[in-house]
Amino acid sequence: MPMQTIAISATFTADLLEAPLAFWMQELRLPARAVVAPYNQVFQQLLDPSSLLARNAAGVNVILVRLEDWRGSAQDAEPDELRDALGRTAEEFTTVLLAAAERSATPHLVVLCPASPLLADDPAIGPVLRAAEAIVRARLVGQAGLYVVGADEVRAAYPVQDWYDAIGEELGRIPYTPAYFTALATLLARRLRALWTPPRKVIAVDCDETLWAGVCGELGPQGITIDAPRRAFQEFLVAQQQAGMLVCLCSKNNEEDVWDVFASRPDMPLRREHLVGWRMNWQAKSANLRSLAQELGLGLDSFVFLDDNPVECAEVEANCPAVLTVPLPQPAECIQQFLQHLWAFDRLALTAEDRERTAQYHQNAARERFRRAAPTLTNFLAGLELQIHVFEPGPEALPRVAQLTQRTNQFNCTTIRRTEAELRQWRDAETGRCLAVEVCDRFGQYGLVGVLLYRNGAEAVEIDTFLLSCRVLGRGVEHALLRRLGEEAVGLGLARVDVPFVATQKNQPARDFLERVGARFRQDQPNGCAFRFPARVVTGLTFAGEAAPEEGATVGPAPVEAGAEPDAPSQLLVRIAQELADADAIVRAVHAQRRRARLGLTPNLPATPVAPRTPIEEALAGIWSEVLGIEPIGIHDDFFQLGGDSLLATQVVSRVRRRFHVQLPLRGLFEAATVAELAVSVVATLAEREHGEDVASLLDELDRMEAGELVLGLTESEQG
Predict the structure, then answer these.
(1) CA dist., res. 135 & res. 116, Å (int)
(2) How many CB atoms are located within 10 Å of the residue 91 CB?
(3) pLDDT for position 690
(4) Distance between terminal CA atoms of the chain?
(5) Closest to 582 (Cα-Cα) out of 182, 40, 310
(6) Is the pLDDT of residue 595 over 50?
(7) Euclidean distance between CA atoms 429 and 431, whole angstroms
(8) Residue 556's pLDDT is what?
């Protein structure tokens, strides 16, 4: 994956996102960097062709909108006038954003950020802000290449109690605390991972002590317990199944014992009809997972395996490293939160095919039974009553088309991955052409299962992408698609249909088809080969039933590579779910990653830092260390020589005000640029509040005394 740019534009100062996003990109091993556009220039970024967002051709554009920032001159208006003004601005914003997305192949993430508590709770203004937000949601949700994240999603996943920073807002238009920016960055990182990482497709789950408490073979169906954690776990599996994941059982058990539980326990949310496959025997679970992969026609890198037993998990990890193996935490009460933070289940969008996937696999099973009963392959294919519909996909089909380019590996001639926005650009280009294919038979709908992207060149129809779901291979669909392009070439007076092929570890079925129908037309090239079919030959292409599908509608065995690496190691995702599931823990981890030694930053720093001498100096040094990511901090180190700037100074002053409850101005840090000097300012401010007219004498005393000997009679809480 090449380096990606996370281009950020916000209606407020959003630079505090950079550090936690850098942390997550390093954790996930994603080559990406965050770049923040100038403050409150969202419209300019979307309209200016030379802006950061417009020039971002490799990555994602993130737009953070807090609608109250667009009140402008209407902020003192009556609620009705404010509602009209914000409504117009919301509509203008969505119009401009949709136009920008049309011009760009880069995905856009739009984050609707929370309003300040004072306005959100205002009975007149709060409803106005929510109405404007509803306009944005209604116009953007479901649009190709656009993904909307609401403040409620951040709050639900990573709640932060102290999230609003009134002081930061006043000083630098930074309305949120570092903890909230970290929570927001974490949710963005989850969305980015879902955008850039191939999705898992199958959940294989153990039974005893996983789906239920107890051993069904010993206790019987009425003896096992469906306690609250297991019920929640089963509900999670059902929700995943409804969102397009395939659910299988992989358990060391007697099959009849397991089915007795399913038949006798109506209190189980997970039902037999939710399952597409199972292996219940006494073989190694790694062998059973391989068997399930073969049956479903999927690679092992499509699987997530969940089991309560760490020994079983270790066996699967050793023998099927491509499987994402997840040991469920103990006690069982931790399972629900753990799964909510297991990023492998994140997805950006849901297509109609996702919702019907389990039903489609059940239909495949019915087809397989029919195939086995048919006396010949010809009888089987004739009995399917297959119907193939090739068409130009509209905007509503682009999410599924994009999904196919990102997921299809076996019959995929070039494996070029594309987002919805990139597909829209291809389709809307003057020379770009796009065809899709839907298939159905007597057993039901296969759905949208194939894609052709091509151009009509000077001499040939030039294919860019030719892919087909493995569920319909060996049915003649691939022949029909190629024949359709041959007919188009003949109609345009073009001589050939050119099909490039770039070999991968998984796309041998595509090459087998091309070799079978046109080996004599192959021409080798440096990066693969191309099949240059004469157009009139392709128009006469027929299907002879030469490749009957097996269980998973795949040609030959599904490619299962024992040594294939998953998109991210199991240990990483498990560690995130266990150790980085709340904002405070993530904040600590970000600080630990950013921490660097002070040595070598600048030659003007003292060689040996002077340690804090008072509680106030110690607290200030801690604030500097957190903001600058440096340790140790000496009381005579200059803030700006340590790498501080005006934005970081705003953070320091905000934290000092919150920590000591003093009205220290921003210029105070510029005038007192060391911990020792800043401590004097804090002491003076506290002393003035406590002693009034005695401030001058106290400061004179401060000049005469060492700070470590100074006693100002401050309250214990003010001393830290």
Answers:
(1) 19
(2) 14
(3) 65
(4) 48
(5) 182
(6) yes
(7) 6
(8) 32
Residues 131, 137, 140, 143, CA torsion sign: negative
Q: Which H helix or E strand runs over 100?
A: helix 79-103
d(CA 188, CA 175): 18
Contact 280, 255 (CB under 8 A): yes
**pTM as predicted:** 0.73
Helix ranges (DSSP H) in 197-276: 216-219, 228-242, 255-264
- On whether the CB atoms of residues 30 and 60 are closer than 8 A, the answer is no
Stretch among 494-498, 685-689, 704-708 having the lowest mean pLDDT = 704-708
568 has a pLDDT exceeding 50: no
Share of residues in the chain with pLDDT > 70 (%): 88
Instruction: For residue 529, report the phi and psi dihedrals to the nearest 5 degrees.
Output: -155, 170
The pLDDT of residue 337: 92
Residue 8 C-alpha from the chain's centroid: 16
The string of pLDDT tens digits covering residues 143-186 is 878 999 999 999 999 999 999 999 999 988 999 999 999 999 99
* DSSP 3-state of 420: helix
Out of 277-291, 554-568, 704-718, pick the least confident.
Answer: 554-568
DSSP-derived secondary structure for 351-396 = -HHHHTHHHHHHHHHHHHHHHHHSSSHHHHHHHHT-EEEEE---GG
d(CA 557, CA 297): 7
Q: What is the DSSP code string of 500-546?
A: EE---SS-HHHHHHHHHHHGGGEEEETTEEEEEEEHHHHHT------
pLDDT in the model for residue 361:
74
Longest dimension (CA), the chain: 107
CB distance 158 to 587 below 8 Å: no
pLDDT of residue 546 exceeding 80, the answer is no
Which contacts (CB < 8 Å, 24+ apart) does range 161-164 have?
163/114, 164/114, 164/116, 164/117
pLDDT-derived band at 492, boundaries 50, 70, 90: very high
Q: What pLDDT score does 73 carry? A: 64
Q: What DSSP letter does each residue of 75-90 carry, written as one string? A: GGS-HHHHHHHHHHHH
238-247 burial by CB neighbour count: b if 16+ within 10 A, else e? bebbeebbbb
Tokens of 559: 């490619």
Strand partners of residue 439: 388, 447
* β-bridge partners, 456: 461
Ramachandran angles phi, psi of 93, nearest 5°: -60, -50
Which residues of 550-647 form beta strands (DSSP E)?
596-597, 630-631
Kindly state the DSSP code that residue 17 receives in the 8-state scheme: G
Residue 690 phi, psi dihedral angles, 5° rounding:
-85, -35
